[in-house]
Amino acid sequence: MSVPDAPDAPAAPPPVAPVVPAQQAASVRVHEARRADCPWCGSARLRNRLRTGDLRRHRPGRFTVDACRDCGHTFQNPRLTAEGLAFHRRALRGAPRDTVTDAVLALRDAPRRRRATARAMLRFGEPESWLDVGTGHARFPDTAREFFPYTAFDGTDLTARVERARVLGRVEEAHIGALTDPKVRARVEARYDVVSLLHHLEHTTDPRAELHAALDALRPGGLLLIETLDPGSAFAALFGSRWLSYDQPRRLHLLPPRNLRAELESLGCTIVTTGSGGSGSGPTGAGAKHRPVYVPYDLAGAAALALSHALPAPDAPWRAIPPTPFQQHTRAVLLRAGAPLVAVAALADLALAPVLRHTPFANAYRIVARKPAKPPN
């Protein structure tokens, strides 16, 4: 689904980056200037939510997440530069992999969840064409075709994974590049009945520009399907930096649902998601609400991150002094020993999911918006 959280190694991998020594790693830890205002509403009333390192991939650097006191928009501040983002998102030879945490994170892209997202669109009928933005290996289009067998699915991605997905028949057209790239934007303009942004906005440098580009790709009256993380989740406050959805430094923006609804409505869209708590019925239009979604990995994610960072640090090509063989062996043994605890937390997540999606602990939400049939005045 979304680009950065798909597995690091693409199906058709580019040349693996060389080992990065400590000095070179430091040279790419480049931040932009810290913002004094909110990138969404412009307010100067900011507060710090957390300061943390890279808890999942153990890459160097410290990262800050701020939130706007006025609109609630939550964002990395200062943001990494393009060079810094490339370093933290690409595969590196010799980089440690936290297999326990990666397994927990994979729950977000489980087939059951992809089917639930596709089923949410059945009430609108079968579209002729569908663009999945940030599709990665195009697992979502492959699953959605079970429900929409006559729909032509296309995909965009920053990497060549989408081209590999085209070869496998998961998408019919593959567009490599950002949706906001002028060349990609020109190729997809006004072509689709549905455009999906599934856990994609949180990774973009400018989510508002991404929304505008997605609407441009829709035909008049087309549907925009969005799933994204909710920074207002009670788990975010409870776990802090151990809330897996923060995933610093790869996630740049977390949008409160009211901000996203207001932006779409300002562009003339009608919010057609109905009912709160996923009831599937209720009013449409400006009074319609988003549908809370619970991705069942909060407890397991917090347990996995806590376990990983309670152990000796893993070996990494950017460490000036590598851990001893004894430390590496100790870490491997303790990780295996702690895996059952993470598994118990994961079972608790799954058991609580039907209840938590109706509470402030819901960690994501879904919005379906209809593009106006005519340009807004």
Could you list some keywords that capture this structure?
377 residues; alpha/beta; Rossmann fold; eight-stranded mixed sheet; four-stranded antiparallel sheet; 12 helices; 17% strand
Description:
This protein is an alpha/beta fold and 377 residues long. The chain has a domain at 110-295 and 365-370: Rossmann fold, CATH 3.40.50. It is 33% helix and 17% strand. The chain is built from 12 helices and 12 strands. Strands 4, 5, 6, 7, 8, 10, 11 and 12 form an 8-stranded mixed beta sheet that branches. Helix 8 (207-217) links the parallel strand 7 (192-198) and strand 8. Helix 3 packs antiparallel against helix 11. The chain is globular and about 65 Å long. Residues 1-23 and 275-288 have low confidence and may be disordered.
Tally the helices: what do you get? 12
Q: What does the overall shape look like?
A: globular
Beta-strand percentage? 15-25%
Strand count = 12
Rg to the nearest angstrom? 21 Å
CATH superfamily of the domain at 110-295 and 365-370: Vaccinia Virus protein VP39
Terminal CA distance reads 34 Å
> Biggest sheet: strands, sense, closure?
8 strands, mixed
Structural class: alpha/beta
Briefly, what CATH class of the domain at 110-295 and 365-370? Answer: Alpha Beta
Element-level helix/strand string: HEEEHHHEHEHEHEHEHEHEEHHE
Helix fraction?
A: 25-40%
- The name of the CATH architecture of the domain at 110-295 and 365-370 is 3-Layer(aba) Sandwich
CATH topology of the domain at 110-295 and 365-370: Rossmann fold
The overall average pLDDT, rounded, is 86
